[in-house]
Amino acid sequence: MTVNVALGHVSNAFLIAALVIYSLSVVAFAGDFAFGRPRRAAAAAPGQQARDRAAALASVGAAGASAAGDQAPAPATASAAPADDAGTMPELAVPALRAIREAGRWVVAAVAFAMIGAAAHTTAVITRGLAVHRAPWGNMYEFVTALTCVAAIFFLFAMIRYRAWTLGVFVMGAVVVTLGLADTLIYTAPGDLVPALQSYWLDIHVTAMTLATGIFFVPAVLGFVYLWVDRYTRRVAAGQAAPGNGIVRRLPSIEQLDRLTYRTIVFGFPVWTFGVIAGAIWADQAWGRYWGWDPVETWAFITWVLYAAFLHARATAGWRGRRAHYVQLLGFASLIFNILVVQVFIAGMHSYSGVS
User: Fold this and answer.
1) What is the pTM of this model?
2) pLDDT at position 350, please?
3) pLDDT tens for residues 214-231?
4) Could you give the dihedral angle defined by the CA atoms of residues 341, 347, 349 and 350, in that order, rounded to the nearest 10 degrees?
C-alpha cells in the first residue's frame, strides 16, 4: 500500500507537540521542587496526604535485610514492612485525583501536562502506523518514539499509584531528552519496510521488545537517582557533606527507590523474555534456524542474562543497594548498546535501523 505522506506529517506534528508539552511538565515538576508545598502536612500535623504517601512508599521501599555496608539505614519516617519482595501493595485511602489536588498546584499542572503530552505522543505513534499501514516500529526512529511513549505512560501509572510526584522531573526529563534526540538526529520519513521485516511477527516480536524497553527505561532512570541519593547519604554519614539537601529531602528514601526499581523490572522482564523467544521463532521461519549468534541476537541474550542475574541475586542472595543497581544499569547499558551501536554500526541480519 502507498505510504500516506500527509498523515506522516501529522504524526510528526503530534510528536513535536508532545515534546513541548512534556517539557512544560518537567518545568512544573521542577517548580514543585523549588516552590511547591514543603510537605506542610508532614511538618505540622500528620495529615491524610502525608499518611497516604508514607504508607504507599514505605511499603514499596521495604528492603529487608541487605549485605553489610551495602545500603544506608532507612530513615525514621519509613514504617516497617515485611521484607518479602512478593508482598502486595496496599490500596491508598485517598483517591488518585484527590491526592493530586492535595499535592499542590505545581503537581496538578505537572501531571496534567504529562497526561496531555502522553495523549499527543500516543496519537503520534498511532498516526505513524496509519501512515505506513503497519506497526509503527519498523526502524530506529519509530522504535525510539514508541518506547518513550511506553515509558511515559508506564511511569505516569506508577507515579500516580504510589504518589511519587518528586520522581517526575527525572523520568519525564529523560523522556524529553531521548525524544528530542530521536526527532532531531535520527528522524526517518515514513516508508515501506524492507522485505525481511514484512511479516506478522513484526507485530509480535518487535512489539514485545518495544514494551519491555520502555518499561526498563523507567528503572534505569530510578537507578541513577538511587546511586546519587545513596552517595549523598554516605557522604553525610562520613561527615563529607552537609545534611539537609532540599532535593534529597523531597525524594523517596533509597530503600523506597530500590523497591520501586525492583518492581518495575519484575514487570518488564517477562515481556523481554517473551520478545526474545518470539524473535527466535521468527528467525526459524525467516532463516531456518532459531539461533545463529547474530550480533543483535547475542546482545539481546546478554541483556536478558544481566536482568535475570539482577532478579536472581535479589531473590536468592538478598542483593539490594548499590550492587543490585549496578547490575540492572549494566543490563540497560547492554540494551542501549544493542540499539545504538550494534544495529547501526555492526553488519548483521538485523541491520534495519534506517539510520545511515
Assistant:
1) 0.82
2) 56
3) 999 999 999 999 999 999
4) 20
In contact, 54 and 93? CB cutoff 8 Å: no
Q: What one-character-per-residue DSSP string does 134-196 give?
A: S-S-SSHHHHHHHHHHHHHHHHHHHHHHHT-GGGHHHHHHHHHHHHHHHHHHS-----PPPGG
Q: Which three cell numbers stand for residue 81?
A: 514492612
Residue type, 245: N
Mean pLDDT of 26-43: 73
- Give tens-digit pLDDT for 270-281: 999 999 999 989
* Amino acid sitting at position 98: R
User: Contact, 340 vs 296, CB < 8 A?
Assistant: no
Whether 129 and 8 have beta carbons less than 8 Å apart is answered as no
Q: At what angle do helices 140-162 and 48-60 cross, to 10 degrees?
A: 120
Residue 65 CB-density burial (10 A; 0-12 exposed, 13-18 middle, 19+ buried): exposed
HEC readout, 199-245: CCHHHHHHHHHHHHHHHHHHHHHHHHHHHHHHHHHHHHHCCCCCCCC
Read off the amino acid at residue 305. V
DSSP state letters, 71-131: SPPPPTTSPP----TTPPPPPPSS-HHHHHHHT-HHHHHHHHHHHHHHHHHHHHHHHHHHH
1: three-class secondary structure by DSSP:
coil
Number of alpha helices (DSSP H) and beta strands (DSSP E) in the chain: 14, 0
**Radius of gyration over alpha carbons of the chain, in Å?**
21
